[in-house]
Design a protein that fits this description.
Layout: H1 3-16, E1 28-33, H2 41-55, E2 60-65, H3 69-81, E3 88-92, H4 96-101, E4 105-106, H5 115-121, E5 133-134, E6 137-138, E7 141-146, E8 148-153, H6 154-159, H7 171-181, E9 183-184, E10 190-192, H8 201-214, H9 232-246, H10 260-265, E11 271-275, H11 279-285, E12 290-293, E13 303-304, E14 306-313, H12 318-331, H13 334-344, H14 351-354, H15 357-365, H16 370-374, E15 379-380, H17 388-405, H18 409-424
Parallel strand pairs: 1-2, 1-3, 13-15
Antiparallel strand pairs: 3-14, 4-14, 5-6, 7-14, 8-11, 8-12, 9-10
Helix pairs in contact: 2-13, 8-9, 8-17, 17-18
């Protein structure tokens, strides 16, 4: 589907959803959501859904944990294409292009039309609204959002003679400090690495995007039709990633996402780069003093925005849409956004949430939770394009080939760029 046709779809949506539904009847909602971090997300979602259900006895809602982000999007799209779409779902914010192209989601801006509704849609932190709009319509609402941050073991820093209150700010400092944090046993085997930076798969690509941003580049543009992979900024970021293993600071051969928080908790690494959504897991399980900081950068700090937004599916009744909209408003209220952030470590998505007594008390006790919010001015959207799944996989495969298989960086980036350009040619 070409871009002008997609814009036509957005315009059509304005006609279909131009009025607010009144006289809402009972609705039975199905709500898909993902979990992508080590946090009690399922329990917290269920608590919030149950609270909404209790307050709205005329409605019912079934919360369905549908796997990780990719699995949830696939299940939601498959269900929609079979005529059995969920009513509402939390899906990747960057999947807006795919969901609009597939013509399966309804714009919030055509359902939430009162002045109060408009104020609600304007209440979210601007960094999180980049991925909510297409063709002048707002298709999603920020909820389960994060940035990766730097976690470090302050006890390990002290043992290495380092200042436990001073995390590395640059890649050069990361190398220097990382060497001092490596510990070996009498046989010369590493028992504590200096750091873990996941560099394989889509998670590796997510972190790479922030590194590229710290070098004043971006992997994709706001249009959804262009990738900037074969650049000096990307090459510099990958060179830094490779140097971590080459300098003996990080295990060679590639680092996976899922094992990283556990390795940190167990003392196998003195620091790690992972989602702010792992804050609760670390806080509940670390038996050492730990801190958080901005991700070390090249020219300046840099991080990728991540996580999911609420979408409402279009092939549901007007009553279901109205009930789903009310559920989304409830879940994103300042009080519930604060509850969600406190329970998981995700970043509360509205300024009002950060003004609640609950989150102020929480951050007073756990100031590490402020880092992800404070890092937002240095964060940019992750890889977001039409055909995102195909595009991102090509880029992730190129990164993995360079890191784990020793492929030539320049040739790999050029080949991946060429492949992606062919896929996106129809959208330009």
């Amino acid at each position: 589907m070409k871009l002008n046709r997609l814009l036509g779809t957005a315009a059509l949506a304005a006609g279909l959803y131009g009025t607010t539904v009144s006289g809402v009847q009972a609705a039975d909602l199905e709500f898909y959501f993902p979990v992508g971090v080590n946090a009690p997300a399922v329990e917290t979602i269920q608590e919030m859904v149950d609270a909404w259900d209790e307050a709205h006895p005329e409605h019912t809602v079934k919360a369905v944990y549908a796997g990780n982000y990719e699995e949830t999007t696939t299940k939601a799209l498959t269900a929609a294409q079979a005529g059995n779409a969920p009513d509402v779902a939390v899906l990747l914010a960057i999947d807006i292009f795919t969901l609009v192209e597939e013509d399966v989601v309804a714009p919030f801006s055509q359902m939430a039309t009162s002045e109060e509704d408009k104020a609600w849609m304007d209440s979210f932190i601007k960094g999180f609204t980049v991925d909510t709009v297409f063709g002048g319509e707002t298709y999603s609402i920020p909820f389960q959002r994060s940035t990766p941050i730097f976690y470090y073991n302050k006890d390990a820093f002290r043992e290495a003679g380092l200042d436990p209150e001073k995390a590395p700010e640059s890649w050069a400092e990361m190398i220097e400090i990382g060497k001092k944090l490596v510990k070996k046993d009498d046989a010369g085997n590493v028992v504590q690495w200096g750091t873990r930076v996941p560099n394989l798969g889509l998670a590796g690509l997510w972190l790479l995007g922030g590194m590229v941003y710290s070098m004043d580049g971006t992997l994709t543009t706001d249009s959804g039709t262009e990738v900037q992979f074969n650049t000096d900024a990307t090459l510099s970021a990958i060179s830094f990633l490779k140097s971590l293993a080459e300098e003996g600071i990080m295990q060679p051969g590639g680092v996976t996402w899922g094992d990283t928080p556990k390795a940190f908790i167990e003392g196998n690494t003195a620091s790690m780069w992972t989602s702010s959504g792992n804050l609760a897991f670390v806080n509940d399980n670390a038996e050492f003093e730990w801190g958080t900081a901005f991700l070390p950068g090249g020219n300046h700090p840099g991080a990728s925005l991540g996580g999911g937004n609420f979408y409402i599916f279009k092939d549901t009744s007007d009553d279901e849409k109205a009930a789903a909209l009310d559920l989304v408003k409830f879940m994103t209220s300042p009080e519930n956004a604060a509850k969600w952030a406190i329970s998981t470590g995700y970043v509360a998505t509205s300024e009002a949430a950060w003004e609640t007594a609950a989150i102020k008390d929480y951050t007073a006790q756990l100031p590490q939770a402020l880092v992800a919010r404070d890092q937002l001015p240095y964060a940019y959207r992750e890889v977001a394009t039409f055909q995102r799944k195909r595009v991102a996989q090509i880029m992730a495969d190129a990164l993995e080939a360079i890191i784990a298989e020793g492929a030539d960086p320049k040739a790999s980036l050029a080949n991946a760029q060429s492949e992606v350009d062919k896929i996106l040619a129809d959208y330009n």
